[in-house]
Amino acid sequence: MINMLLPNATYVLTIDQTDGLRVEFDKGDIVHLRPSGNASELRCYAESNDQDQAVNICTICLNRIKKALQ
After folding, report:
1. Which phi and psi angles does 17 have, rounded to 5°?
2. pLDDT in tens, 2-42
3. pLDDT of residue 37
4. Domains of the chain from N-terminus onward
């Protein structure tokens, strides 16, 4: 289920729920989902070796969450 957050991820290395949900994947990419502290929003942060990939990760991740909630 957690792999649905990131396309092409083979497996999850770590999961941290200290401040939302932070997942580190096998290829070094990281997705961090957390509720906003002052608005009714879900925030998505991504880390990757490439800026375009980080933007792509957030876009895909949030779209998959929206689709799952429909």
Report:
1. -110, 20
2. 656 676 777 889 999 999 999 998 888 999 999 888 888 88
3. 83
4. 2-69 (3.30.310.50)
Residue 30 structure tokens? 């990281």
- What does pTM read for this prediction? 0.80
User: How many angstroms separate the CA atoms of 13 and 23, rounded?
Assistant: 8
Backbone phi and psi for residue 10, each to the nearest 5 degrees, phi listed first? -85, -45
Q: If you search the block for the tokens 């608005």, which residue do you land on?
A: 39
What is residue 6's DSSP assignment? S
